Amino acid sequence: xxxPNTNMAMWVLRIAVAGEFIGxxxxxxxxxxxxxxxxxxxxxxxxxxxxxxxxxxxxxxxxVALIVLLKPIRAVVLWAALWxxxxxxxxxxxxxxxxxFVERWANWGAPLAxxxxxxxxxxxxxxxxx
Length: 130
Fold this sequence. Notes:
Blueprint: H1 6-29, H2 33-43, H3 47-70, H4 74-93, H5 98-103, H6 105-118
């Protein structure tokens, strides 16, 4: 049996995470109606505020995707895992089915696996290194 190639696994995960965040970023920039509604419901803001916040989130998601793809930084990969977990949880927290959360485990699992392969930092300043 051939020894697994960790570098190749990291590239696969980087591409997967970038794809997820680019896709979500584009949906956010398009002002996906359901997502605007979730923001309104979770933060008790009006339509204009929710739409503006979703636009900012869209740009942030695309920035995260580019960082993970081009030069992954541990802190950004951790953010991707936490944000992926949160956005998966939003569905049942706003009245959706818990299976919608289960279906999205890869949204936080892929960045978490990438972080594991990158190596967990032992010092605070190592979070900002790739």
